[in-house]
Amino acid sequence: MPGIRVVADSACDLPDDTVARHRLTIVPLTIRFGTEELADVGPKDFWVKCHQSSVLPATAAPAPGAFAAAFRQLAAEGADGIVCINLSGKLSATGQSAQAAARELDGEVQVEVVDSTSVSLGQGLLVLGAARTAEEGKGLAEVAAYVTGAAPRLKVYGVLDTLENLKKGGRIGGAQALLGSMLAIKPVIEIRDGVVHEESKQRTRGRSLHYLADKVNEAAKAGKVQELAIMHGDASDIDKFIDLVAVAVPREQMLVGLVGAVIGTHAGPGVVGVAWIEPQ
Question: Which of 10, 55, 131, 142 could form a disulfide with 28 if both were Cys (CB 3.0 to 4.6 A apart)?
């Protein structure tokens, strides 16, 4: 079936059924537990592995060849062009690999590589929007322009149960100030301009989740939430959090999913996050 096809890396955390419904192609990052290297590990298996492992996981960007293989497969299927949407280039070299692959395929198929400047289901919402734009029959430039236009309106917040993973993974970014009191707080972070920023310091997890729910509810009541994504890292209290948010956003308007291995590696177990795109 010809048309524009959308590719993303596995940091987008979109559920398998959503990936299949929109004919998305996902290129996996590599996950390492010590000397053990895994590719394409599912979210459930990842969190089981985390609970069993005595070492913190680490991630590695896909090689350019992995993206090139995906692009060539879509070209062979008759794609008129490809838009590849990657996690923040300030947090990973994944986008650089995609760009190298796009250059390699110059003359075979036109590929536009776009930095989502985001992570997890924040990136996932942009991928979904691009897929829907392509399904409307829009061209390559229009699909890519959707992503670059929507990215600045994307809001992504998260509650961390631990800062250990961010600290050891070197992705602490603008939240560096949190480290001094990391044992005494349950921080709320924001992904802004492609990096991690401190948003709030809360003394308990319950307070941090209520704070996050209040942000969602205030935005929803102001008409700023058209579609809400909720992601979590095997959090036992996720249903309670969804109940807090459901007072302002109907459950059928929520995309709920597990944080996968790429972001879970840095966010740590118990993370709860939200993402939405504000209307223009």
Answer: 10
